[in-house]
Specification:
Alpha-Beta Plaits, alpha/beta, five-stranded antiparallel sheet, 240 residues, 2 domains, eight-stranded mixed sheet, 13 strands, FAD/NAD(P)-binding domain
Length: 240
């Protein structure tokens, strides 16, 4: 098969660490899966991770280092070439070195499967009663509903919605005790204990806190590994 692209170094991954490495080393990058970020997660510099990712990814595209963007559906790694499939069209990349930041959706991945440690689970809620207060973050000592982040409503910036962040193992993720319904109930309980009140009805009565689930996001947290084999490098560490 003739080469469509020839590259010395190819980065495979969608993490912030992957795009930053590609930018720093002027390397071709292949997105093996859709990028996913918890919107409130920040770097040590306090910059939001997804904002930094967007800036870096845009720069890579502008410099023609991300030729397939999010169109890749399949990647196969062979000894001297990478086959990339986009919408039933196949491309062939001749390479010298590959730097892997993840193992998702890669055929012939040259390392052992990266162990999955746990899941970050984010339950986004539309709050309908209990929207006006001074809190931006509530924290607990539990893994389930570990933190509650508040954000301004898009159309009503004086009022707030919220998202609950939990850390669960695979068994917990599929158990009813850790379902979105239980997350909603515990979130309400934590907010109530923090002194947040529901919507005022009369001078002496307030409605209880109410909210509805908008979306549950689930992110994989994998073991951080640095390894090298022949002309392959694996680095799953998070960008700090």
């Amino acid at each position: 098969m003739a080469a469509d692209i020839i590259a010395d170094n190819v980065v495979i991954g969608t993490s912030l660490a992957a795009v930053e490495y590609a930018k720093k080393n002027n390397s071709l990058i292949l997105f093996n899966t859709a990028p996913s970020f918890f919107s409130f997660k920040k770097l040590a510099s306090e910059e939001l991770i997804y904002e930094k990712w967007q800036k870096t990814a845009s720069m890579l595209s502008f410099n023609a280092l991300n030729p397939f963007g999010d169109k890749i559906s399949f990647i196969r790694v062979d000894k001297e070439s990478i086959q990339v499939v986009c919408h039933n069209r196949k491309y062939n990349i001749i390479y010298k070195n590959i730097i892997f930041f993840d193992d998702e959706n890669i055929d012939n991945f040259p390392f052992d499967k990266i162990p999955l440690l746990e899941y970050r689970v984010c339950d986004w809620f539309k709050v309908t009663s209990g929207t006006k207060h001074e809190h931006w973050l509530l924290e607990t000592e539990d893994r389930f509903v570990n933190k509650i982040y508040f954000q301004k409503k898009i159309t009503l910036p004086k009022y707030k919605d919220c998202v609950s962040e939990s850390f669960l193992n695979e068994k917990e993720l599929n158990h009813t005790d850790y379902s979105p319904t239980m997350s909603r109930l515990k979130t309400i309980d934590v907010m109530t204990n923090a002194g947040i009140l529901g919507t005022k009805h009369t001078k002496t009565y307030r409605y209880p806190i109410k909210m509805d689930l908008l979306e549950r996001q689930v992110f994989k947290i994998k073991e951080e590994i640095v390894d090298k084999k022949d002309n392959y490098m694996l680095d799953t560490r998070e960008f700090k």
